[in-house]
Amino acid sequence: MINQMPSLSSMYRFQWEEAQSSYVLLYPEGMVKLSRTAGEILKRVTGKTTVKQLVSDLETEFPGSDLEPDVLNFLTEAKKNGWISF
Amino acid sequence: MAGSLSSISGKPLWLLAELTYKCPLQCPYCSNPLEISKYSNELTTDDWFRVLREARALGAMQLGLSGGEPLVRKDLEEIIAEAHRLGYYSNLITSGVGMDADRVAKFKTSGLDHIQISFQASDKELNDFLGGTSSFAHKLEMARAVKDQGYPMVLNIVLHQKNIEQLEDIIKMCVELKADFVELASTQYYGWSRLNIDYLLPTREQVTKAESIAKRYQTDLEGKMKILYVVPDYYEKRPKACMNGWGSIFLTIAPDGRALPCHAAATLPDIEFPNVRDNSIESIWDDSNAFNKFRGFAWMEEPCRSCPEKEKDFGGCRCQAYMMTGNAAAADPVCDKSPHHAELQAEVALIEKTSANKNEPLIFRTMKNSKKYQIDKKLNLSQN
Ligand code: SF4
Ligand code: SF4
To answer: Which ipTM score applies to this complex?
Structure first.
């Protein structure tokens, strides 16, 4: 997975919501409010960034911890939900 | 597919804009009020712009453009464009009648996110009979146009006694049309469907069979097409969590500008629903009597008041409670803790037994019938 470049499924729209102070995913007749971490990860899911690069980006922005396991877990879950594809 | 977001902010997340009650179809289960003929005084384009703006400022993200048939509105493209500008995720909920491939493409450039098309059945004959117009071929064509334009597509089929046996064919049709989501929604009995309940309520046997078919396809099609199957709640022991609670996340605006916590709420007695022509969305949501009336839990009576499940279903549907008990604050009689549950069951059993022998015609949703039937507003099951 680490060298793949995930992208957001066309079914979903990802955006910042001021009223919720969070990122959300919007899809036909539904929505999901994302946790801060989930939002920061999905923000970097552009179809042009490898998972490896994404992890290192996050570690630069939020230094001090090994984020890779969390990111991989989240991306696996997100793929299962149909939010993203590889 | 209802949203999985609960009310975090206490503000509306969902705006349902019922742009008009005009519709070229005449479905006898239509969830619009019987009084459709009284709604000629529709909001203007500017009114809708203001509604969109104010609801968005409060935090609404999802916009349903619905009706009636929203395609009847000539300013639909403008409304879509404004919704897009404001950052809504916009859903067009349509019968497909009133658009062609060009208009589908134009909506896309205006910023529409998703189109939901309803089918009445999986074959031309029944589809066109139930809709009261010859629309089946056009619907197929429009479903293909929607996919061609790259929209996510939801197909919606309201299930009832007359089409529930075709469920397998219905699902196959949706697969063929490459739907992303399929909503198989059992008829809810308000308004028009209530008038026609004798002909629409499926039998318990039909329901059990349909449920197992839906489950099988849900598993088989996992990852390809999502199927949402909404069971008919008259056969359940617990009510649905209607609107996720009154005044919690949903805001409906009727064509005449009346704001409703649920699209069926206009049938409730003694509530004056505020109009967006005279009030801001914020004051309607926060301060109006109507939106506070059944909000939270303080209004509840027993058995709901002391029930450990009240945060799960909010006591069920207020319209259903009123319709069957005469008291809008009662527990939804679908709940087996309701003192009226046995009555509901007996009535359902009676319909099940006798419906096969009924051959009076269905009452279609027409302006003429609207004028005729709204006089008799107190439609109880027992009077059918
Ligand atoms: S249910 Fe049928 S009649 Fe009612 S608005 Fe929809 S298409 Fe029109
Ligand atoms: S008693 Fe009321 S709150 Fe409890 S399950 Fe029944 S409807 Fe829901």
So the answer is: 0.86
